[in-house]
Amino acid sequence: MNASVSMHHLTKRFGSFVAVNDVSMEVTSGEIFGFLGPNGAGKSTTIRILCGLLVPSEGSATVAGFDVASQPEQVKQSIGYMSQKFSLYDDLTVGENIDFFSGIYGVPRERRDERKRFALELSGLDARKDTLTRLLPGGFKQRLALGCAILHEPPVLFLDEPTSGVDPIARREFWELIYQLSAQGKTIFVTTHYMDEAEYCHRVALMYRGAVIALGSPDELKRELGGASLLRLDASDLLAAMDALAGGPGIEDVAVFGSGLHVRVRDLAASTAWIQDGLRAQGVAIERLEPIDASMEDVFVSLIEAEERK
User: Fold this and answer.
1) In this structure, what DSSP letter does residue 135 have?
2) 182 and 272 together in one domain
3) Residue 274 and residue 181 share a domain
4) How many CB atoms lie within 10 A of CB 108?
5) In b/e form, how buried is each residue of 31-60, taking b as 16+ CB within 10 angstroms?
6) How many domains does the chain have?
7) Helix (H, G, I), strand (E, B) or coil at 81
8) Could you read off the pLDDT of 53-69 as tens digits, one per residue?
9) Domain that holds residue 109
């Protein structure tokens, strides 16, 4: 597979602050690539470099075969970009927004009607093409923004927190559109803070303090939790349970997840018995204690905490 996005020792400094620190990786054509990390990790700075908006301090990057430092205009013509802050014009209708972005993106005049039909079909808004954009539900605005971002048929799409603020059903429908575009060979580079969405990506990179600390498929990253097992614990007193388990033999980590705890252990059988005895001795009633599969959120928490300990 050809590398659609490539970074080699990419570094960006702002004075003495290193926002992106020696990042190297490649994303192939047709891949849905997730970019994860806490706020301030360097994700947005990296994307701005890849979009030709910032020049790297060191290292190099290419997008669709163009160098981001020496060929930024060619890069911009080869990408589609969609952010969590929709770049649509609320006082224009759906159709007028599509017409406007067709001009901005330089779609040839003879192809604009065809591309407009495509965007309306993709967004499911053909019946609402004369509706003011501000009157659309969030999920439809999001789909319209995606349709506008690919009017010029770019080979690479950057989606920066694209599903922020929309309901779960709209998020799932949006991801179905992403899969359609991936199947057509488009490279999708997506940042998200929804850990369940990371499961939909072919590969993910976890960025922390400017560096990529993990890279692989969701399944690969889950397997790399160090051979530990995971238990779900629901108890009558979560705080007392956390205090009782912290630092216990074979207990690697205890974290709050929803209304319960996720407990990472080295030896499943031995730790289960120890947890039962230890909580009973503290007067904490166990409502549920069973092995579970690790989620991307577990991976995220585990890796960040490991970096913090370093």
Assistant:
1) G
2) no
3) no
4) 10
5) bbbbbbbeeebbbbbbbbbbbbebebeebe
6) 2
7) strand
8) 999 999 999 999 999 99
9) 3-222
Tell whether 69 and 20 lie within a shared domain. yes
pLDDT digits (tens, 9 = 90+) for 136-150: 988 899 889 999 999
- Whether 204 and 64 map to the same domain: the answer is yes
Number of other residues whose CB lies within 10 A of the CB of residue 249:
11
Position 310 scores a pLDDT of: 72
Q: Is residue 300 part of a domain?
A: no
Average pLDDT of the chain to the nearest whole number? 90
- In the numeric block, the tokens 């589609």 are attached to 80
Residue 100 contacts residue 144 (beta carbons within 8 Å): no
- Do 249 and 151 belong together in one domain? no
